[in-house]
Fold these 3 entries.
Entry 1:
Amino acid sequence: EVRDYRQVMALANRHDWWAAFANEVLIARAVEQMTGMTPPPRAVRLRVLLCELTRAMAHLAFLTPLTKAADGTRSVGTTVAVGAREALQRVLEEASGGRIHFMANRIGGLREDVPADWSAHVEDALATVQRALPLIAACTVNDTAFVERHSGVGVLSLADATALGVSGPAGRASGLDVDLRRDDPAPGYAELELRTVVRTAGDALARVACQIDEVDLAVDLALQCLQGIPGGAVNVRLPSTIAPPEGSVYNWGEAALGIAGVHLVSRGERTPWRLRLRTASFNNVQALSCLLPGTALDQLPTALGSFAVVVGDIDK
């Protein structure tokens, strides 16, 4: 709240580093909504594409440790999961110059356009992920020993998930059929064909299965985005000072681990009067109080490993 709106963008991706791009978009869209600014069509499509690439990368990061054998040794699934994640990391770094804090967004669009041959590199990266998914599934949700270890462990009921505001794959694994990409689509999502990944068991196995399917869905949406990316500019010319008119706005979206939101209040000055975040992991981590009681000590790593959270996102 002591920084101007351009400087706020530099902090937007620090709390949930696995949803860095989505966090940047939320801040940018909130300011754009208050100022009546419309990003160019090319920027809108590229924003969706970059969001889905980071979503797939985030899920692969959480899935990678789960692909190891029970004794902790690496499997073929571990190797391909790391390779798939790095393939996505490379194209994101190529587009933004950063590996974690991308800073690719700006108010009014993107900071700069993607390289001329970037789309072809993205297609190659997505093909790598598609080849990896069956091998990841083979050593997790399709492996008998893995299924036995995860079935019935750390069950989160639909009622508890709803009461606690759990969202994202953790909520959908318990049957909570909510996905803002479908239910309240951000600019660029309404034009895409979107299916929703939902399970009902609510246990560790269902959460892992949801994350694998979320990677597949993100790849599908990214491939749709690659078809017919509009030409033209990727940002609009900004005034020397950004000072939204007095008022407030709440902007939300589907980040990798669930619903993220930004409440922005302006008094017509260069800095926001109030800026508050609704972070996915902060709500989701409350569910541990419901799903962990009764879990055997030797099952705790299984229950916790299936429930993805980002520590920076719960540090309030």
Note: The CA atoms of residues 27 and 262 lie 7 Å apart.
Entry 2:
Amino acid sequence: RIVDGDTLVAIISGERERVRLLGIDTPESVAENRPDQCYGEEASAYLKGLLPEGSDITLILDEEARDQYDRLLAYVVRSSDDLFVNLDLIEQGYAGVLIYNPNDHYESLFRSAERDAIEADAGLWGVCGGPDVPLE
């Protein structure tokens, strides 16, 4: 189940597990304590399209497996075609790069993709001017 553009719930060994996609940040669309942001609903809808309920995924962990909210931190690969979901969200302009060390394995790849998305005015870059822009 997709929670928002950078968080999902996966079933791992029969247990529900909240997963935060590593290395990216999408605009807020469901946070209770923060306002919705420009392109948040679009990012969430895009991820839902990439990973419809029941999709098989592979989770790749980095150095730290969990965050302060006990969410599993992972890079996500769609099993059907090996799409690197985190990277695709950046390339298509649905996410910016957000690195929390020591989870930085793909930082240079992600930053390069973000530069390309910015130059192309892809997604939120063309519509909002960047991430973290409140809805008006």
Note: The mean pLDDT is 93.
Entry 3:
Amino acid sequence: YDACEEDCKNNYASSFAIVQEKTYKGVKAADSSAYVLIAGDSSKDLYPEVFKKLNGKYIDIIDHHRFGKYDWHNPKKDFDYLKKSLQSSGFDISKLRFWITETGTYSGDPAIGRDLPYQSEKQQAEGLIKAYVSALSYGIEKIFWAWDIVEGFQRDCGIFDYTGLVYDGCDCVNNKYTCGLNIGYDQGKDVKKLSYYTYKKMVEILGSGDWDNIQTIQESDGIYIYKFIKNNKPIWVAWNDNSQEKQITISGITSSQVKITEAVPKYESGKDIVDYSAAFNTETKSVSSGKTMITLKDKPVFAEEK
């Protein structure tokens, strides 16, 4: 077994490419209209050698897994790297689709794995909205949050046990995943985190929009602004990664008012939310000459024409 395992490590690219080719041919023989994805991995450096072996063939969809702290959200550097590798291996990237079938950030304090500091519910919720909007703006077609809606995937005190949007009543105590009343940071079984409500609000506001025509307004100086279109009306998503609040201007507004909604609820924990309809801070801004000023503080915001 050890010899076999070592051989797989040394020759992973050839082995993976063989499996990918055989799978692709088998799928296409069964259904020529089906799309075949190359399985995702969190280590982008493992891809290029496989791409070279495939020589521009046997892939329809590129998948890459991304996890990390709440400020890891922007996928552009990773996918630019993958696209460059694909092009040098003979792939026409204009004919490929790009997915993220596993992504997530956590709340709490995972005890096993990489050096991951404690993150609050608020930080997880911020990371969630930033991850989705950044990926969609880049052209990532599908993004899947992992692992599971409820915490406790592997129950080994690692990051995947904490990326859920709902508490499971457990936490890591003395390096053992332990369940019960008042365990560690956990707020109680089935209690929804702030990230749950942020995800819900994001789907309500941006869902069913034209995600093929997202406009990147700004990605510089710690300010991020994106323009979505839904029902022929613009919706802006913006956030500020600076430590100080910043003023921004959005333009091209056709109505006289804009509704600003913070993307993260106004509480420290989802446990405190009793009325979802009143859980988010909102304000109405007037519009002058198609423009309005917005103060970006520590939470991402949605801006909708009224």
Note: The longest helix spans residues 12-30.
